[in-house]
Amino acid sequence: GMVVGLIHDIPTCAELLERIVAECRESLRAALAMMN
Predict the structure, then answer these.
(1) Residues with Cβ < 8 Å from 11, sequence gap 6 or more?
(2) Is residue 15 in some structural domain?
(3) How far apart are CA 23 and CA 31, in angstroms?
(4) How many domains are there within the chain?
(5) Is residue 18 situated within a structural domain?
(6) Is residue 3 a part of any domain in this protein?
(7) Are 19 and 11 in contact (CB under 8 A)?
């Protein structure tokens, strides 16, 4: 379908989890910075 054009790489499960964890860490860091 049309979504295929949006997918530029197909990460392994491990890579995907690492990306999600990294994004979560960045989000938490940003949120904590705003509170301080």
Answers:
(1) 19
(2) yes
(3) 12
(4) 1
(5) yes
(6) no
(7) yes
Q: How far apart are CA 27 and CA 21, in angstroms?
A: 10
Question: pLDDT 10s digit of each residue in the chain, 36 long?
Answer: 677 777 777 888 899 999 999 999 999 999 999 998
Establish if 14 belongs to a structural domain.
Answer: yes
**Which range marks the domain in which residue 15 is found?**
9-35
- Tokens in use for 11? 């990460």
Give residue for tokens 């940003």. Answer: 30
For the stretch 19-28, contacts whose Cβ atoms lie closer than 8 Å and that sit 24 or more positions apart, written own/partner, are none
C-alpha–C-alpha distance, residues 35 and 16, integer Å: 29
Q: What is the pTM (predicted TM-score) of this model?
A: 0.62
What is the SS3 assignment for 11? coil
